Amino acid sequence: MKKQFLPILFLLINIAFSDVYQDRFLIYIDNSVSDFSIDEITGRTNLSELNQMMDKLSAIGIHQWLSNARPTDRDGDIYLNRYYVIQFESSRIDIHELVKETEMLQSIRFSETMTINRPTYIPNDPRWNQQWFLPNIEADLAYDLWDIDGGDIPGQTSNGEIIVAVADDAIDWDHPDLINNIWQNLGEDADGDGVVLVQNGNTWAFDPGDINGVDDDGDGYIDNFIGWDLADDDNNPTYPNSNLSHGTMVSGCVSGSTNNGTGVASVGWSVKIMPFRCSEDGTYIEYGYNGILAAAQMGANVINCSWGGFGGGTQSVINTAYNTYGSIIVASSGNGGEDGNTNFDLHNPSGLNNVISVTATGPGDNFNCWATAGSTVDLGAPGESIWTTTLGGGYGSAYGTSFSSPITAGAIALLWSRFPEADQTWIEERIINSTDVYSDMEGSCGGTSLVGMLGSGRLNVFKALSAGIFPSLSIDDINYQNDTDGDGVFNPGEQVKVKLIIANGEGWADADNVFATISTEDDRIVFVDNIIVFDNAIPAGGSSFTLIDHFLLYATDDAQLGDVPCTVHIQAGISEPYYTIDIDINISISLNQFGFPIEGITIKSSPLIADLDGNSIGEIYFGGDEDKLHGYMIAGLNQYGFPFNADDNIRSSPASGDVDGDGSQEIVFGSHDGRLYILSTTGVQELAFVQTGYIVGAPALVNLDGDDDLEIVFTTQNGSYGKVYAIHHDGNNVDGFPVDISEKMLVGAAVGDLEGDGIQDIVVCTWSDHIYAIDAMGVIKDGFPFLASNRFNSPPTLVDLDGNGDLEIIAGNDSGNLYVLHHDGTEMISFDTGDDIRGGISVADLNDDGSVELLFSGYDDMIHVWNPNTGTELEGWPIDLGYNSLSGPITADLDNDGDLEVIAAMKSGTVNIFHHDGSLFNGFPTTLGGDIYSTPAIGDLDSDGDYELIVGTTQGLHVFDIKSDKGNRSSWNMHRGNQLRNGFYDLTLTSIEQGELVPNEFYVSKNYPNPFNPTTRIDIQTVESNELIVSIFDISGRLINTLIHDKLEIGFYSVEWNGKDQSGLLVSTGVYLIQVRSGKKLSTQKMAFIK
What we know:
Family: Belongs to the peptidase S8 family.
Strand order of the largest sheet: 11-12-8-13-14-15-16
CATH class of the largest domain: Mainly Beta
CATH topology of the largest domain: Methylamine Dehydrogenase, Chain H
GO molecular function: serine-type endopeptidase activity
Shape: elongated
Number of strands: 71
GO biological process, one term: proteolysis
Number of domains: 5
Domain FlgD/Vpr Ig-like: 1020-1078
Strand content: 25-35%
Radius of gyration: 41 Å
Low-confidence stretches: 2-18, 117-123
């Protein structure tokens, strides 16, 4: 059908009839009630409480459900004659609540809703399961519009019949799956017995009593009992040798007898086939247009033409059939060019006006670039692997637009049988405008775009039948409103209002009396109100929402984060059959910070969270595989000056510190092409240091030379080689660097004073199985390199484990060996996990016994908490994560209980949070989209008193808002332990066990020893839970170091100072002040450091 109307595109939906009655429900009269009766005049019972309930509910009556049930018909102690139906005048949207209320009556044993039992009709034809194309065009749903088990037959009308003419090569019309649907021209029934075909044994023949050589019906054809043979000009359209199969296969697509237990089904089900032979020998369709005209003259409603050519057509024949006789003509668009590929040439008769042109689709709604496309195509229909009838009573699989066309013709006939009073235009528009769009319509074939070349979409007969009868409702949007804390995110423990925007498809019926109910089998959500009623109709092509009504949901306090699968049941209609649709949606329980996640970034760089611009609001910095260093602040807004464009991907985790000593922080990171960047907090490049190796690990910032600025230490990979660099902020190398160790390094360095001699040292791990220690002058220290069992993909960590004033080196390799070395390279202890250790080793005193544990994970799928001083894992650990991890654990006091929580991420995207004893933190684990390659970070991004957890994945950046007051306990809260990325853990605070003793006054001891070198210690007693701040000042009042800034419980503590400033450098000999503040309590005293 050409150029006369514009196709309207539809979305694919599923519709089912209502599952329960809304205007009645079932009750069972308790067995204790004797002589139950109903007054036939009043419609009320002899039970006063039941009558009162019926009056309250406005019920109009009650009647026995199973009137033929005998007193002996029972199931255990359930007697079938005690079931009754309470009836209402109209539908009740609160039917489930009425059922529950009635069940509370003493005389009612139970009550329940009543199911509407309707078949979802699948024909019993044995080859149905091979006919993929019928469910594809939703023929199975279309059949449900007829009460087939009640005697309705799709394709039949109350008076008359719908006829599809098949003008083709020839038709084996007595095929057992066609014969019952062959049109019988009763205008030629000369003997008046009501048939023109009779069965003779296993064959069919024309009724001898009707063969009289007279044109009884005056249509111009003598004894045309079923159609005509245009080639031989006789009344039998079968080819004499019965070896032409095309027309027989086409006929089976139109209306193979359906639900007859034989062969195949068809879209037309029972519409009649008028067969025409239009070919001499099957090579050409010489009499095609003759067949069109003859079919129109004989009264065919639809004429199928599975043939054509890339040349002219006879428009006048088409117009005569269409305008004079009222026939709809359907034709195949063509099977492409001679090379077997799609062409876009004009094909006729499909390209003519008043012809519906049909191209072919394949399984999965694929257009496989062999069928003809073009601007004259109206729609597509299945044309590949089409099981249908063939010669000799057989069946076969067919391929071509020859079969797309009759499937469409059968669908048109089925539609017309449902609306027999409709005119041609209405039928044509309905079939074309009710298609389903599919993705290949936006594709191309041989470099030529298919946009506008495949018509309106793929045939959907159910939509064509039901559009105008039913609406087509969908959920356009879901809005969360008035959540408990007002951040627009539905958190565990919160209540939220959920509103729906419901849309109605263009070209469908208006939706009246719409209401929606929501349900779930997931116990994380409780529905306080699960019904939304739409006061106004939803017009076709429009959408609607409710101003006041809403779902009211509550998430349990311990609800695990993630999507909660729910089903929204929508019903519309004034009376039965109601339109209903069940739509699956997800209600998201989330701790997402407002404005996050940020999607579309591949992150393999560990995020840095810090307030670098000094505005008391944190920022997040990280690198992406899209060659950018990103900076975000609260609400997911870009930090001013970011993202910064580098020249290659950034997997190096950014560090921050005042590298140039000007009082402002800088951001330092490396890129894959070997550049080391220094940026200001506004994204201005201050340095791009160029060398030849890749930079993958995080740079470490340290004061190597004792001046007022920081040096930058980083490792490189250049093939199988690598160097250790130390540069000044101006790009000059530190004396003695770079150190060429000729071994590649994929992880960053650790920096600390190994011997406690006031000189910083650098520790690196390589892919050649070595651990190196290098001094500040670039000299490899005695005792190194240490040879391990395998390469290292995890950076080293430095900590004083044994309390002797020097640092131990901790590193884990790809054999699963965790090494603990003394500062001189000798092995203190090791631990074997059996598989790769990845991401980094963090340090914490989880059980507060004064002895730290090492936390790590990797390819053994475990997170370990191991005490190297005892050689044992902490009770409750390790924990099986279920998948390997590429990121290091981090710790923080998330809930202000004084204990540290442990955050561990799996490569697969799952984030776990554990309490110090290994039990799960509320809401976790949760799984994110994408893989996690880098260590998360913890910090108070928005300065609201709780922590945010920042996680980068290969799909974007996630920020979780942990909804509990934070504790201020110092912890390893990001990759490499701090913003400097130096991998150094400073043991300063120790909790002292005093049995059941509780301090009764605030107390700070004198430091001991005094004077001191290298360390001194003070003891503190706190009498209230409060922040404890321990700071070091020089005699002029300048802040030298902050040793403790934690919220601590009442107790006894010991704090140690090692004579170093915030950069890790030894201070000069002199007098210093140590200040201890706990709430309003303050203590300040002098102490002397000597070298």
